[in-house]
């Protein structure tokens, strides 16, 4: 009886392993839903419409257009807090959803009011406001996130849920910006604390956490190729949100790599 060589055994084992691996679910059979706030609705991109300021250039619609899922629910809405997602978006979520994406938490900690304060007060005033947001994230946000995640699991128990982070607004530090480096550092530090809490609670819920900072590195506000809008006047809501490139080259790859 001939004896198989080690190489032949390795090849055979590899082939068997490939043959026994569970095939990935085809996108055409996936029911996908995009939940969340303005970073999921597409604020900052072109083509926004309706009271929720949804844009087909947001990462959710971009993923759907590329992958042609069986169904797509675009439920994200500008200004949404954790309570808004839990009581307004989750109830309309399909119970058969296979894939869900989500950004939420920024409005809970006062994203807009913090940035306005940092633009209109001193360095110390900005730092104090950011510290308020960080304290809320530490004391209260975790419970709010847990409630949202539990509601999603109860409504669509079979779904793969991808929770995406927020990017850092500035490089470390950005030069040539109107805001001082102290304010930039404070804003970025607040974002890190927020993302850390989101990651902690998402992973505790058994969800997939996807960090977007790597994708946005080198494309922050004031960079030569910014994927995040600075202060905009028309419309003001676009301020500090991703532009078309930010959604297509930042958020979309971060989501696609975690969608399974």
Automatic annotation (TrEMBL):
Its EC number is 3.1.-.-. It holds the Pfam family Lipase_GDSL_2. One of its GO terms (molecular function) is hydrolase activity. It comes from Actinoplanes subglobosus. Residues 1-26 form the signal peptide. Keywords: Hydrolase, Signal. It comes from the Bacteria. SUPFAM superfamilies: SGNH hydrolase. Residues 34-248 form the SGNH hydrolase-type esterase domain. This is SGNH/GDSL hydrolase family protein. CDD domains: SEST_like (cd01823).
